[in-house]
Structure formats: structure tokens, C-alpha cells
Structure prediction request, 257 residues.
Amino acid sequence: MCRIVCHESDTMKQMWSMMLALIMTVPLPADTYYVERNTYAGQESTLVTYIQGHNYRFDGPGSITIFNAERQTTWSLDRSRRQYMELSHRPAPLFTLAKWIVKPRDSGKTVHIYYETADTGERKDFFGYTASHVITRERTVAEPGACALSHEIETDGWYINAPGMRSLRGRITVTRDPPCRDQVIRHGEPASPGFAVALVRGSLKQEVLELSSAPLDPNLFEVPADYKRTEPPSTSWVQDFHSQWRMLQRAVETWFE
Prediction:
């Protein structure tokens, strides 16, 4: 069961922290706009992404998320209701302390991770760029009793190298309590073949339908004037404190188990 760092609100905080950290640490590129179709287990969705400097905007089915770097603000927009919420997170000092205090559990087992990259030599034109067909594999071999599980991930993709072009795709890893630690030995390095315009990974298929580096309108990263503000549901400060305190107690307990 997840007790310290794996519950819904904290997972969302991790997601936003990772996204903002990624955006704020990369060099300023050209403006980027792309439309991506994602198909997973037969379910299809379309996501439109706008990036300008350190600002970003995601237009998904029925909702829009905007991060404005100058204002240091994230908004969530409801298209059907023409409403928006300003997303903010209260400081959680006890939660942060709990993450530092919690004692990792060493499995005493070894996990080997093998990285393989194969350029098929095939080339194809996408949006005026020449794309390379690259197949990457990440194979994890875990000893019995290890925290990690043995598995293999194969990604079959077409990639372009466009100056200034970037994607905000990424993985979100959720840590469970108590943290479990293996001895990890990596063989090779993860591949960075470029900007993926099409890829297949297991049951997931991603296709870029439109792609542009033309200048974007700065108003895309502001809330439209006809949207009304609503307040997000929140817990009281007392509830937050008790929740953080329970996490801290649990972190201390891991040293006596």
C-alpha cells in the first residue's frame, strides 16, 4: 500500500514539478506547435501542444492546461463551461522532510538494464524533415527477490533532428513506501534519437499529425477574456497538517521495522 509518496494529490504534484523543471532548465528554443494522435488499447485521443520559450499549453479533449512562465502560474480551462481554475500548491514542509527521512529498503539483489539502439537505415520525409527509422530496446533483468521486475520495452519510431524543436513527452515514476532499492548495473546509455514524429511502444501508438516552428501568438498562453474564474476544491490547513504529520510519522517508523 502507498503511504508516503504515492497518493493522488502527491502524484499530481510530482507531475507538475517534473514538467516545470523540464521547461525551466532547457535552452530557449524556437516556438513549437504540434498535433499528436495517441492510440492506446484501441482508445484514441488527440493532444495539441504549444511551446513558446518557457511557456506551454496543452489542448486536450474538453480541457486546456496553460503554464505562463512570466506569471509563474498554471491554469486549467474547462472548454464546455468557459471556466478556468488557477492551480497552486500549498507548501508541504513535513511532506518534504518525510521523503528525506524515510529509510530505503535494500533488496540485496542486482538488476541489469541493457540499452540497444538500431538504426534501420530507412529514411522518410515528415513535414519537410528527413526522419530516421530507429528501434530502441530497454531490457531489464532482475534477480529473484529484487524490487524491480524483469521486462523489456521496445520502441519503434521515426525521428527528426529539427533545430530548436522539442517535445514535452516524458515518463512519470511514482515512488512507493517504503522505497525499495536494488543494485542497478546499466549496460550502455538510453538512446536520444531526436524528436519522434511517429512511434509504437507496446499498446501505445503516437503520431504527429501537424508540426510547425512558426512564431506563436503570445495570447495563447493567457486565459481568454470570456472565461470565468472558479476556485479549485481544497482541504483546510488543519487537514493538510495532519496528513503531512502522518507521512512524517510513517517515515520515522521505517527505521524501526
The first strand starts at residue 32 and ends at 40. The two ends are 16 Å apart (CA to CA). The helical segments are 8-25, 93-101, 237-253. Confidence is low (pLDDT under 50) at residues 1-28, 170-177.
